[in-house]
Amino acid sequence: MKIHPSWKLQNIDNDNIRIMLSYSPEYYKKRLRKIGFTGKTTKLLDAGCGAGHWAIVASYLNEEVKAIDTTKKYLNTAQEINTKFGRKNLKLTLGKMENLPYPDEYFDYVISYCVWMYTDRPKSLQEMYRVLKPGGEIYIGAIAGLGWYLK
């Protein structure tokens, strides 16, 4: 799988990162607009950000974006992309979804795409709700089959 040229990266030796970055930034912008996770005065958290593809795109559509991931290699890629795009309203952090380093009721939106099922799910969900403002929204994307949840 090839990295979409819009991400401006070469020589990535990690198949998971290649998959994350195979779609264009425009693809992710469309999806964020479709679910309504945009706003000039909104704060968004990308919980389990991976290579930062959702977070970087969200930084164009929201006032402030924070992103957290447990994998240093993914965060390094996200930082490299962020440096190339020059997004000043995005902060990347190494950490766990089960213990988010953000204040209560801080975010308007929380997105967690394809990682929540690999965490301590009840703890992660509790933390996402803790940092979410009243009336805020959470988007959890999970592609694992039903069998994963029945473990």
Explain how this protein is built.
This protein is 36% helix and 26% strand. It has 151 residues and is an alpha/beta fold. Strands 3-2-1-4-5 form a five-stranded parallel beta sheet. Helix 4 links the parallel strand 2 and strand 3. The termini are far apart.
Could you give a quick summary of the protein structure above?
This protein is of the alpha/beta class. The chain is 36% helix and 26% strand.
Instruction: Give the termini distance in whole angstroms.
Output: 30 Å
Total helical segments: 6
In helices, the fraction of residues equals 25-40%
Rg (C-alpha, Å): 15 Å
Q: Which structural class do the helices and strands define?
A: alpha/beta
Question: Which series of helices and strands comes N to C?
Answer: HHEHEHEEHEH
Q: Can you tell me the residue ranges where pLDDT is under 50 for at least 5 consecutive residues?
A: 145-151
What's the main sheet like? 5 strands, parallel
Which outline best applies?
Answer: globular
Tags for this model:
single chain, 151 residues, alpha/beta, 6 helices, globular, disordered C terminus
List the helices and strands and how they pair.
Layout (H helix, E strand, L loop, with lengths): L14 H6 L4 H11 L3 E9 L5 H9 E8 L2 H14 L4 E5 L12 E7 L7 H11 E10 L4 H4 L2
Parallel strand pairs: 1-2, 1-4, 2-3, 4-5
Helix pairs in contact: 2-3
